[in-house]
Specification:
about 350 residues, mainly beta, Beta-galactosidase, Chain A, domain 5, 2 domains, nine-stranded antiparallel β-sheet, six-stranded antiparallel β-sheet, 28 strands, binds beta-D-galactopyranose
C-alpha cells in the first residue's frame, strides 16, 4: 500500500456562463500547494508557507473566473493547440493550408479565439503513481478552432515531495493529423514587491527569434551575445527593462531558443533575492517566451495581490513550448501529431522557498 504524502482538495470556486467552476488543490508535506481551476485549466495559485504561519502566492491570480477572460493577457491559462502566433492565421501542414480563426488582426494567437484558455474543462482528482493528481480533460473540435482533426486533450498537474510541480499535456489526434504545442501562461511574482524589477532571470539560450511587425517569427535567429537578451548569466529584470526603455515594447515579449545541450531539467531560473524564493522551469522542448507584462494596465486587471490595481511589470510570464509557427520554419521543431497518435509534453516548476 502506498501512503499518500500529497493531499488533494476540491471546492466550488464560482460559476462562469452557467458552468460550475471548481478549485482543485494539491499540498505536500512541506506545505507547498498548487491549485488550479477548470476554466482554462488555469494554474490558480502556488502557495508557499511563511514564517508567521500563513502562505504567500507566487503567481498572479484574480478573484473571479470572469476576470480571466475579461482581459487579453491569458493569465496562467492553458494555451493550445499552439502557443504563440501563426502567421496570416494559416497553418501550413504537410503541404496543405488550413485557415484558422484569428484573434489578433490576421494572426492566430495562442490557439485563436476558441483556444484551450476559453474552455471549461472537465476536472477531477486522479491517481498518478499512487499519489493524487489533478486532471482536466477536453476534446477540442476542428469545427470550433479550424485546426485539422479533433484533438483529445488531458492536462495533469502533479506535485512531489521535492517541491516540483509537474504539468503533463497529452494530446491524441482522433481522426486527422494535427499540431500540438501547448503551454501554460504562468505569470510569477515571487515576493512582496509590486513589480518584478528586482527578480533575477537566467535562461539557457544562445539565441532568440526575429519577428515581423505582427510579432510573427521570420525564421531567423539572433545571437544574444552583448545584448539585453543575453541571460546566460542571471540578470536583474529591472536592468533589462531599463535597457529596453526606448523600444516599443519597453521590456521583454520575446522568444528564446533553448540550447540543444540543455537536459530539460532547467531551461530557466527566476529568483527573488528579497524573499529568497526561486523557481526553476523544466521543459524538454526548444522554446521559451518571456513576457514582462509591459502592457498591463489598471483596467480590468483585478489581481488579488494588488487589490485590483494591476500595473505594468506586475509579473513575468515564462511560457515553455516548441518554437511558434514551427511548421513554417526549418529547425523550429516538430509539433505535428499524426492521426491516431498521442504525445505528452511536460512543463515543471521546481520551487525553493
Ligand atoms: C505572450 C505574447 C504577448 C502577449 C501575451 C499575452 O505569449 O507573446 O505578445 O500576447 O502572450 O497577453
Amino acid at each position: 500500500m502506498t501512503t499518500n504524502l500529497i493531499s488533494a482538495h476540491v471546492e466550488p470556486f464560482d460559476t462562469y456562463n452557467g458552468a460550475s467552476i471548481h478549485r482543485y488543490s494539491l499540498t505536500n508535506q512541506h506545505g507547498l500547494t498548487v491549485s488550479a481551476i477548470n476554466l482554462g485549466a488555469t494554474l490558480y495559485e502556488i502557495l508557499v508557507p511563511t514564517p508567521d504561519g500563513g502562505t504567500d502566492n507566487l503567481v498572479l491570480n484574480y478573484p473571479n473566473s470572469a476576470d480571466y477572460l475579461a482581459n487579453p493577457f491569458y493569465v496562467n491559462m492553458a494555451i493550445g493547440r499552439t502557443a504563440g502566433r501563426i502567421g496570416n492565421g494559416e497553418l501550413l501542414l504537410n503541404g496543405q493550408r488550413y485557415p484558422l480563426s484569428t484573434n489578433e488582426g490576421s494572426t492566430t494567437l495562442h490557439g485563436g479565439p476558441n483556444g484551450f484558455n476559453s474552455v471549461v474543462w472537465e476536472g477531477s482528482v486522479t491517481d498518478y503513481d499512487g499519489q493524487p493528481a489533478i486532471t482536466f480533460t477536453h476534446v477540442q473540435k476542428s469545427s470550433v478552432d479550424g485546426y485539422p482533426g479533433d484533438l483529445d486533450v488531458s492536462i495533469t498537474y502533479t506535485l512531489d515531495e521535492a517541491n516540483t510541480i509537474h504539468l503533463y499535456y497529452t494530446g491524441t489526434a482522433l481522426n486527422q493529423t494535427t499540431v500540438f504545442n501547448p503551454t501554460q501562461h504562468t505569470y510569477f511574482n515571487l515576493g512582496h514587491a509590486a513589480t518584478i524589477h528586482d527578480h533575477l532571470l537566467r535562461l539557457d539560450a544562445d539565441s532568440h527569434l526575429a519577428f515581423n511587425a505582427q510579432k510573427v517569427p521570420t525564421g531567423d535567429l539572433i545571437d544574444v551575445s552583448a545584448t539585453p537578451f543575453d541571460l546566460r548569466s542571471e540578470k536583474r529584470l529591472g536592468d533589462v527593462i531599463d535597457d529596453l526603455a526606448e523600444t516599443d515594447e519597453k521590456g521583454f515579449d520575446d522568444i528564446w531558443k533553448i540550447n540543444e545541450t540543455n537536459s530539460g531539467e532547467a531551461i530557466a531560473t527566476l529568483s527573488d533575492p528579497q524573499s529568497h524564493r526561486k523557481v526553476t522551469v523544466g521543459s524538454s522542448r526548444n522554446g521559451l517566451v518571456v513576457f514582462t507584462a509591459n502592457s498591463f494596465t489598471r483596467e480590468k486587471m483585478n489581481f488579488i495581490r494588488s487589490n485590483g490595481q494591476g500595473q505594468p511589470y506586475e509579473g513575468v510570464a515564462l511560457e515553455a513550448q516548441t518554437l511558434p509557427d514551427a511548421t513554417r520554419h526549418e529547425g523550429f521543431g516538430d509539433v505535428v501529431l499524426p492521426a491516431g497518435e498521442s504525445r505528452t509534453d511536460e512543463i515543471s516548476y521546481h520551487v525553493e522557498f
